[in-house]
């Protein structure tokens, strides 16, 4: 069931998410009700102008602890804002709009680009996406299913 409007869809505290526009079928995300905006691990972030509009080119490593399968994507800059991390550090980030598939539902959301190399998850899903009918069950994980076993092995079994 892939609908964009739904209500009370349960999600666990961590889920495998798809980013179809990037060609990323599997990226492990933490569901973070403490974060307003979702965030994505990005590197080689480069801003440029296309047809008078601000755009950004960035690369993503979908798999934790590996540099395999880097994906490069270009899209318009949606916004720029200061984001305060859980440690209290403020950082200015580029915000893009990305479509994602979470627990079988397609949603578009604001996503900040940042270096998450030192973090446990390549992506966080924040309240701006969750308020579209998702209910978080903190006792559950991967309610939307898991990446195929051979793909998870690349992620060193940390699922």
| Percentage of residues assigned to helices | under 10%
Uncertain segments are none
Order of helical and strand elements: EEEEEEEEEEEHEH
Structural class: mainly beta
Strand content: over 45%
Largest pleated sheet: 7 strands, mixed
Q: Quickly count the helices.
A: 2
Q: How are the strands ordered across the major sheet?
A: 2-3-11-4-10-9-8
Total E-strand runs:
12
Mean pLDDT level? 86
Radius of gyration over alpha carbons? 15 Å
Characterize the overall form: globular
Termini, distance in Å? 24 Å
Domain Retropepsin-like aspartic endopeptidase: 11-143
Protein name: Ribosomal protein S6 modification protein
Pfam family, one: Zn_protease
InterPro entries: Asp_endopeptidase (IPR008503), Peptidase_aspartic_dom_sf (IPR021109)
Task: Write up this protein.
Residues 11-143 form the Retropepsin-like aspartic endopeptidase domain. This is Ribosomal protein S6 modification protein. It is a single chain. With 159 residues, the chain is mainly β. It has two helices and twelve strands. It has a seven-stranded mixed beta sheet. A three-stranded antiparallel beta sheet has the order 5-6-7, with no helix packed on it. A two-stranded parallel ribbon has the order 1-12. A hairpin with a 4-residue loop joins strand 2 and strand 3. The two termini are 24 Å apart. The model has no long low-confidence stretch (mean pLDDT 86).
Summarize the structure.
It comes from Microbacterium arabinogalactanolyticum. With 159 residues, this protein is mainly beta.
């Amino acid at each position: 069931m892939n609908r964009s409007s739904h209500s009370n869809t349960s999600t666990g505290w961590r889920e495998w998410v798809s980013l179809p526009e990037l060609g990323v079928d599997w990226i492990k995300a933490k569901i973070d009700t403490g974060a307003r905006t979702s965030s994505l691990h990005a590197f080689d972030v480069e801003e440029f102008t296309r047809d008078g509009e601000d755009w950004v080119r960035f690369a993503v490593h979908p798999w934790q602890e590996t540099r395999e399968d880097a994906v490069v994507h270009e899209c318009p800059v949606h916004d720029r804002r200061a984001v305060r991390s859980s440690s209290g550090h403020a950082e200015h980030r580029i915000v893009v709009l990305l479509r994602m598939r979470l627990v079988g539902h397609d949603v578009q959301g604001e996503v900040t680009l940042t270096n998450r190399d030192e973090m446990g998850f390549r992506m966080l899903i924040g309240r701006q996406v969750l308020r579209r009918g998702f209910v978080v069950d903190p006792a559950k994980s991967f309610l939307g299913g898991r990446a195929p076993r051979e793909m998870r092995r690349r992620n060193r079994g940390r699922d």
